[in-house]
Amino acid sequence: MDAADARLRQTLVFLTTLALLAVPVYVISLTADLLPLQLLVADHSAALLDAMGFAVSREAALVTANGFTFLISPDSTGWKSLLFLGALVLAVPGTPWRKKGIGLAIGLPLVYAANLGRVAAIVLAEQAWGWQAAALAHDVLWQVGLAAVVLACWLAWWTWARRGRRDHSISRTKEKPLPSRRRKGDFGIDFAVAIGVFLLFVTWAFVLYQESVPIAEETAREALDQIADLVLDNLTVDTRSLPARFGYANSTTVVLYLDYRWPFGQNTTAVLFKGSSQACNITDNRLYWQSVVSPGDNYFTVTFSEQGGNLRCAGGFSTAGAQPATGYAAERGEAVSLDRILHLNATNYTAFRSRLGITRNFNLTISNSSGTVLSYGLRPPPASDVFARTLLHELEETGGNLTLRVLVW
């Protein structure tokens, strides 16, 4: 066996060993329960984010940082990267076990730390640019970043491990190598080329797989917007805001009126002045309200929405001597209705999903400055990728702010 054959044999041994060591990836993917590792990574991620100044809470593998909720799924633990680095180190032929042990002892913690850094980078991206940027960072840093870290760690270890190593397979050959055909260091070139070709085929296989098979995360992320829109459509009502003006020379209590033909929602009419509701009543198509005005122009907002309910303008004041106010064009809008929130809360979750054609599980949380108003749907499981969308809306009945968070998995 000449030197070239010996080098080729070592390369084939490496690739064969690497392929065999990759078998546990499929076994673990199909059978293993990685929840303990998920909890460990979630705990360390929460500690890192807390040290970075985020307001962090954790429930099992679900972590929330400054309102951004995400799940440490099995793939988010980085176990495949750890296993692949171990396979790369163990597959190199002719390397003492002591050096392999050193490579694993240093490389595996580095890859684990890099995965925690990836989690922190995703949270930073979400805080700076929104959940779309977080999703992009998740994909790029997960698929490319960790792979680069693994290869960098392995190449650094391989370069160190080869120093001073003799090529025993070549020294045992009976024929002398031909200096004119091979130079010292050619084995390293052959080895690097072989690894490059191997990684090229692995990359090609992953690209082909992603193009041929729908990825669950992509599907869930696309479904998130659809489900959030469907849920929001069931909670919101069309609204109108009609500006009105009245000018007066003195500060006094006056009764004003405005003639208006309501397209809908006359019973929901309210009059706001400087953010406060005014006493009002309605007779046919004339709206009366009582208010304390200031010298100069006073601006009011008449609001109503497309929903039923009891008459809101039912004030008992006298309308004698009422003065006309000037109305302007109504502005269209939408707001979350408390009546619809209560109706949703009384609706069976399975029936609601079926009626809207929703196939994925979801959870809706509605909160205001006082706390949680509603939590509807299922709790996210500890072993699934969960995608979140946060929406800000006004409550139609009070004008207060609401935060709606939709989780989909």
Mean pLDDT: 80
What percent of residues adopt helix (DSSP H or I)? 40-55%
Number of strands: 17
| Shape, per Cα inertia axes | elongated
Number of domains: 3
Radius of gyration: 33 Å
Task: Detail the poorly predicted runs.
Answer: 166-182, 208-218
Number of helices: 11
The percent range for strand residues is: 15-25%
Major sheet description: 6 strands, antiparallel
Cα(first) to Cα(last) distance is 58 Å
Reading the helices and strands in chain order gives HHHEEEHHHHHHEEEEEEEEEEHHEEEE
Protein structure class:
alpha+beta
Could you give the topology of this structure?
Blueprint: H1 3-21, H2 23-31, H3 35-51, E1 56-59, E2 62-65, E3 68-71, H4 79-91, H5 97-129, H6 131-161, H7 168-171, H8 186-212, H9 216-235, E4 236-248, E5 252-259, E6 270-273, E7 276-277, E8 279-283, E9 286-293, E10 296-305, E11 323-324, E12 326-327, E13 331-336, H10 338-345, H11 349-356, E14 362-368, E15 371-377, E16 387-394, E17 401-408
Parallel strand pairs: 5-11
Antiparallel strand pairs: 1-2, 2-3, 4-10, 4-12, 4-13, 5-9, 6-7, 6-10, 8-9, 14-15, 14-17, 16-17
